[in-house]
Please model this.
Amino acid sequence: MELIISKYHNFLDYSSLTSEQIFSMLMKHSLAFIQVRNKKVEWGMNFPMFIKPFYDLVYKQQTIPSQIDYFEYYLKKNSPFFKNLNLDEQMMLGLKARIFRTYPSLVRDIHFATLLKERLTRIGVFYNTQLDIQNDIDTLLIVNKKFYSLSLFTDTVNGRKARDKKRFRHTRFSNVSYIELPVEFKGSTQCGDFFLYGNRELDLVKNQLKLT
Model:
């Protein structure tokens, strides 16, 4: 199956946020993590996708939501699902813990995609939630009419496990080259409580694609 890019919207076109604005917003947010892993929530249930509500907030409100605002909007957006499911308190806490862990990676991705679009002006930088969810494309780069799927992930045991799971549950396109770049936290750009991809990762991408 080949990717036909004209079938998809580039969600980056819907955002007026710059990478500096995103950075400034994140400086005002804090991160908290709940030390709970409910086995049924983690592995035994299929919840509505975590990605779409996050990008709804980004593009509709032109802002980066806080961790708790994202969680509350996710519940609101999917209220019929949760009303019918009627999760108990422990399962809701497990879901909150899982979404709180997901949030930093979503933030890193939108910031870095925006940075790529700003800095790599001679190539196409493309993001679409459907391509992300169904086709394992975190960020699509278009270089001389060739498609490259870029996936950055933290070079840890958990980071590699998560990346492997995502890779094998998606349908990949035959005309897309999939690039995976493991990145160490050490040396990342720090923004308050957040670790972001920055100039170091930008240079990795440029070297990978042989861009000058």
